[in-house]
Amino acid sequence: LVILLAEAVFPAQAAPGDTTRVSVGPSGAQSNGSASAPAISSDGRFVAFHSMASNLVSGDTLGNTDIFVHDRQTGVTERVSLDSSGAQANGNSYLPSISSDGNLVAFESYASNLVSGDTNNKADIFIRDRQLGTTALVSVGLAGAPANGDSSIAGTTGNGRYVTFTSTASNLVNGDTNGVQDIFVRDLQLGTTSLVSVVTGGALSDDNSGGSSLSSDGRFVAFGSIAKNLTANDAKGDIEDVFVHDRQTDETTCVSLAPDGTAADGSSIGASISSDGRYVAFSSAASNLVSGDANGWADIFVHDRQTGLTSRVSVNSSGAETDNDSDSAVISGNGRFVIFASYASNLVPGDTNGTNDIFVYDRATSTIERVSVDSGGSEANGESGTPAISSDGSLAAFNSLANNLVAGDTNNEWDIFAHENVFEADTTAPSVLSVTRADGSPTAAQYVNYTVTFSEAVTGVDDGDFKVTRVGGAIQGYMVPEDGVTGDGATWTVTVYTGYHNGTLRLDVKDNDSIVDFAGNPLGGTGTSEDYFTTGELYWINRSITSMAFRSNGTNDGWVLESGETTDVGGSMNTSATSMWVGDNIDDKQFRAILHFPTYDLPDDAAILSVVLKVKKISVTFSDPFTTHGNLLVDIRRGTFGTAALQLTDFQAAASGNTVGVFQGTSVGSWYSAVLERTAIPYINLTGVTQFRLRFELDDNDDSIANTLKFFSGNTDSGNDRPLLVVEYLP
User: Fold this and answer.
1) Sequence-separated (6 or more) residues with CB below 8 Å from residue 13
2) Taking CA atoms, which of 327, 400, 451, 685 is between 20 and 30 Å from 605?
3) 3-state secondary structure of 72
4) Which DSSP symbol is given to 276?
């Protein structure tokens, strides 16, 4: 008893690595009922949770699940699921969320006596002000009416002003007619409620949403949904995705996406957003969110909304993937740490208990720690779950059935534990490793890109951190544009405007202490320097540009028609006609066109600057496929798709680069043009031929009507009408 009292009353003296039990009653007495769902104040002093126990506070006589807050500094546990007079709730309460200072606690409750007029017989969301001793209804209907549906899973901003929750009620806002579970945000200061699980612009979702999380200012709301209409690129069917709604711009975006922006191939759940709204953590069964995901288990991911990159964090310190499922992801407020539960046995050495454990991944150092251990590091002898983490990542909380995490645990109940995380203090300042050219040199390009590599992941990188230096020549007007910096982690791309005249340019990195690592260490250490890194690679800007035009070879170009509506393979072709077709025919088979150019006439050492592909329209059959089939796309092949002669397999043969250009839907003098992406330039064959494949974005539109664009081929008598390739280069 003396040891338990010391743990309860003086937990502030706990050292890194220590584990204490917080679901305790007066004098540290263990509870007589299970506890779950911890939530932690910003500094880790207060831990909120729900519990069935009746002995955590005096006067708990109704036998309901209640909400409690444990003060780790004083050892006192307080019940907060009370009305404003202190009367206990007459129904069960669950799933608390706590403000940064620990004063405000939001929770779900079936009680009807926490506020007056609660007559809806539904689960509602309430907020308790611990200092004032008052309880208020959050999930309130229009004009103060009770909500006409259940509400659950509350979350708060750091200052407690905004509360997000899930509800099936249709009377919380005007126009909620979709009949599904939605996500709402209540502004307690203004007394207003907004519906946030909506399509960009405000249209209602077409299916259920749940599990929301708020940024500290209440602007960004992350949530999960099986709705199919929230964004164009989310997964369809019964696959759940994770979304972020921007309450300022009314924009909704999907964040559980593959690197190419396509939908996830498995469900993603449990959204948790960092304080600044930049990072979103979630669990997903998808295998296409990152490369190399081959374990077949649900993993934990973090999506960076600034860079659009997604990383997997349920990996061991060597980066190896798990051998079992992971879930319940929560990201720390600063975005550095992610806590989660996992059945995996290979995340840390010595994991032999064969049960669910709690882990914390440090995104700054790419290391992982198991926190469901006792103060000596021994593993738990029972299952653990429902993890939470403080804003700075210093404290983890979770519930566990284990009886060996602290001394004297004999209640055989799920208890709440707090673990002081052990992470090596990061005092090493980041540095610049290199500044290298990302494009060819010499160049006449108006813009060039540099790749800047730091010694570790950094943030705060913007155009003000760089200076363009003229090393030689008469070049003028060069600069880093305001939007010219993109990247993430340790690698960033800096775009430089090259101005006018010729000369040589270098990109220097300034040390103004705005670039910091996850631990807040500034670039190069504290102190500023205008010329911190000045040894990067040079660009020679030479604006003596030459161009060469090529006409498609009629002997080798032509069209290929799909063998069936959905076969995706060629079935028939024509290489002798004076025209080509793209679009679909009356049987909804897709036409694709193959163009053939003798680019071996270019100098072998040409530095290509730009490539434009043009075709001349003859006519359109029925509807213009630019309006029915989307964009006309360009694939490129260095050499030939098969042989020089047109083949049926050219329809589906692998390209060197897919979608390297998009034709504009409006013709000029009957000519359609596509300016190819820079990614196409390496595939222009300087010593042989280059082929292109033209196809519409939509293979067919299932209307059983021919929708085609007809244009001149390389066989047309008029050489000036043949498909044209224009290459600009430096000789």
Assistant:
1) none
2) 451
3) coil
4) T
Task: Tell me the residue type at 481.
Answer: P
How many whole angstroms separate alpha carbon 417 and alpha carbon 339?
14
Would you list the domain boundaries of the chain?
A: 1-26+322-424, 31-195, 432-541, 546-730
Picking from 154, 195, 158, the residue whose alpha carbon sits closest to that of residue 174 is: 195
323: amino acid identity, one letter: D
pLDDT value of position 264: 93
Write the CATH number of the domain with boundaries 432-541: 2.60.40.1220
Query: What is the per-residue pLDDT across 407-441, written as a single tens digit (0 to 9) for each?
Result: 999 999 999 999 998 776 677 889 999 999 999 98
How far is residue 63 from each of residues 55, 86, 122, 373, 694, measured CA to CA in Å? 10, 17, 19, 31, 70
Which CA distances in Å does 292 have to 77, 178, 346? 46, 39, 17
Question: Tokens representing 437?
Answer: 């050219």
What is the three-class DSSP state of 541? strand
- Residues 194, 184: contact at Cβ < 8 Å? yes
Do β-strands 485-488 and 466-473 pair in parallel, antiparallel, or remain unpaired?
A: unpaired
Q: Which residues of the chain have pLDDT under 50?
A: 1-12
Q: What is the chain's alpha carbon radius of gyration, rounded to the nearest angstrom?
A: 31
CA 677 remoteness from chain centre: 25
- Start-to-end CA distance of the chain, whole Å, equals 86
DSSP 179: -
Domain spanning 31-195: CATH superfamily: TolB, C-terminal domain (2.120.10.30)
CATH classification code of 546-730: 2.60.120
Contact at 8 Å (CB) between 369 and 383?
no
What is the per-residue pLDDT for 154? 85
Q: How far apart are CA 8 and CA 72, in angstroms?
A: 7
pLDDT tens, residue by residue, 249-279: 999 999 999 998 888 999 999 999 999 899 9
Q: How far is CA 337 from CA 213, 302, 640, in A?
A: 16, 10, 49
Residues 656, 637: Cα–Cα separation, whole Å: 5
Q: Exposed, middle or buried by CB within 10 Å (0-12, 13-18, 19+), for 320?
A: exposed
Q: What is the DSSP string of 192-214?
A: EEEE-SB-TTSPBPSS-EEEEEE
Q: What is residue 649's DSSP assignment?
A: G
627/698 Cα distance (integer angstroms): 11
With 0-12 CB in 10 A as exposed, 13-18 as middle and 19+ as buried, what is 612? Answer: middle
Total-model pTM: 0.66
The residue whose two tokens read 């506070």 is: 57
Two structure tokens written together for 380: 């738990």
